[in-house]
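Model the whole thing, not chain by chain.
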Amino acid sequence: MPADIAPGDISQTRQTTDSAEPVVVFEDVSITFDIKPVLQNISFTVQRGETRIILGPAGGGKSVLMKLANGLIRPDSGIIRVFGEEITRMRETDLFKLRARIGMVFQESALFDSLSVEDNVAYRLHEEQVPEEEAHKRVLEALRFVELENTIEKFPSELSGGMRRRVSIARAIIAKPDLILYDSPTGGLDPITSTTIIDLVIKQRDVSHTTSLLITHRLQDAFLLATNRFNQQTGKIEPIPNGGIDDSTRFLVLNEGHVVFDGNTHELVHTNDPWLKEYLS
Amino acid sequence: MPFVSPEIFAKQIIASVQDYSILSWRAIANLFSRPRYWADIYTQMDSIGVGSMPIVVLTGFFTGCVLALQSATSLQEFGSVSLTGNLVALSMVKELGPVLTGLMVSGRNASGMASEIGSMKVTEQIDAMRALGTDPVRKLVTPRLYATVFMLFFLTVVSDAVGIAGGALVSVTLMGLNASSYFHNSYRALQYGDVVQGLTKPLFSGFIIATVGCYFGMTTKGGTQGVGKATTQAVVFSSVFIIVVDFIVSRAMIGIFGR
């Protein structure tokens, strides 16, 4: 160690290293259900602040990959690191602590149907014994973000599909997580509602700069994310001027359990891969 | 149903027994570490215990009534109709009270647990709970287990009491027996070992109802059809287990107390 580096500099260096460390790392991950290989030798990394869009045909293992990233299922082989910690061999009790830093939006919302919207959104806060008054304030704040303040006393069965998805986003972001996993947030929704959901994802990305993984079947959603930004002055979503693209948005394309593309928007659009060209067209 | 080889079938059975054992152990052990969901335990006690009162009271009462009615025919042949109280009390406390209460609660609650948890499983609510940092076994299974074991004990006591009362009603009104002698005979017939035997059984039955109900709920697969299947299996397995374990406990108690 050079003599001229003071102890304060060391901690600063460590912090810089930590922030440069990828949030999610998959190394040669494979998983098989019964006899069907679902994911084979998947490797990729997600950097801090990055929005990683996962594309691919249905049945390509996208949702499985999302559950692997949250430790909900374990791979047969390979290593997964989240926030620098290897989760593949982690005990379930330790995983619960790690998941406190991860928000997840499920494909079908997965709201607790016996709890009201307020209790659903405040679930994590109640678990952490946050005082009722503060929890209520934060629930209102999260619901205001998804523009659903008026549904606070309703039950999930009284909401439309799009509203449920938005409540699910509010539940995922209430604890201000460092990583958000969106599992097909626009799946099964009409185009207008899908755009509303994607607008929320863009808003979350540009306001909090949270690292996120997002699965989508709709290419237009993916390109909306890459070419739009949230304007904090006007409070609206607008296209990035001069046909610009968002640098923090990157793509991962899966097909039949393999990674067929890993790169940014520009590389995806100018790909020479015949299958990918056909898929994108 | 697709045909599976005996080897795969055996492996599936062993894996199920292993999963069931792990789930049961974790459900028991969770109460000894934080966080503990006391509010859920009380809610389940209300739902399982208080909610099952009507069926347990009705079943116990009419079982006592019919026991008195049927036994009178046989006892009359020996001129011992006065021993009706004796027979009703022993049958209710040692056998029918615990077993029938167990079976009734199993039908009502093992199915309820399997369908409730099963629905949560197929709609990804269990995964959502894990993703939100909560252990579903701790939150869902442990409260149901302790609530069922605790409440089934008292439900059995209620069932025994109303059964003896039902027997008294039939003996006094239909057979003209003296109420005082009926209750005196009932009281005299029961010994310490009989009561211990009758009150040990619901502890096992309660454990079986909750763990089997929750196990089938937690392992539900395949949408709403899967929930239906899990519910049916939970009731069938828990009912059969209750009767099998009843026999084992009876034999063990006879070995200990000699009656």
